[in-house]
Amino acid sequence: MADSLTAPAAPVSIYAEASPNPESMKFVLNTQLLSEGVSVDYPNVEAAANSPLAQELFNFDYVGRVFIAANFVTITKTSDLTWTHLIPELRTFLKSYVEAGGPIFTVDPAAEQKAAQHAAATGDASEQDQQISQKVIDLLENYVRPAVEQDGGNITFRSYKQGVVTVNLQGSCSGCPSATVTLKSGIENLLKRMVPEVTEVVAEGITV
């Protein structure tokens, strides 16, 4: 697998794939940018201090959000311009940047993400709540995240308290018109069925 800090200087192919969010487009590469299961979401250029690639993308005045996962980049636009006009420019930039070995991250976000998730699952929670949190995390990782990634986004565990699971929606999911429906009819039903202690799932990151 490629070093996640700097992409390999090798031929790169990229294709654009629509997401359920009409303002977001998923650019899929034939090389890995991050370890499997790790992703980063940058809602603005200030948040992208650790990613030179994301910072460069924010130089395009129509780029409003950048999400990077294992082998794709999801870009959310702020302009009324159609994707037909924007895709060629973004694809050319990504191909040139990655092929040239441009730095993706200054610090690998994998360890930081794992530490944050562990802290969210434990913290000052009781032993029972920690066990429930771990069950929820496993379900999100194994059943929900792969499907959400297909749509150009991600879901991460934030907390569990008194039956309520809080998750964070990232990438294309953050502004997707169907995000709330998916959250309630899909994710909430799954967790309530598999973990009886769960009574509700709420989300951070929904901007619609």
Describe the structure.
Belongs to the NifU family. Pfam families: Nfu_N, NifU. This is NifU family protein. The chain has 208 residues and is of the alpha+beta class. Helix content is 37%, strand content 23%. It contains five helices and eight strands; from the N terminus they run E-E-E-H-E-E-H-H-H-E-E-H-E. The strands form two sheets. It has a five-stranded antiparallel sheet with strand order 1-2-5-4-3, covered by helices on one side. The protein has a three-stranded mixed sheet with strand order 6-7-8. A hairpin with a 2-residue loop joins strand 6 and strand 7. It starts with 13 loop residues before the first strand and ends with a strand.
What is the gist of this entry?
The protein has 208 residues and is of the alpha+beta class. 37% of the residues lie in helices and 23% in strands.
Strand order of the largest sheet: 1-2-5-4-3
Number of strands: 8
Terminal CA distance reads 36 Å
Please mark out the parts with pLDDT under 50 across 5 or more consecutive residues, or reply none. none
Mean pLDDT: 84
What's the story with the biggest beta sheet? 5 strands, antiparallel
The helix fraction, in percent, is 25-40%
Family: Belongs to the NifU family.
Organism: Hymenobacter nitidus
Pfam families: Nfu_N, NifU
Protein name: NifU family protein
List keywords for this structure.
208 residues; alpha+beta; five-stranded antiparallel β-sheet; three-stranded mixed β-sheet; 5 helices; 23% strand
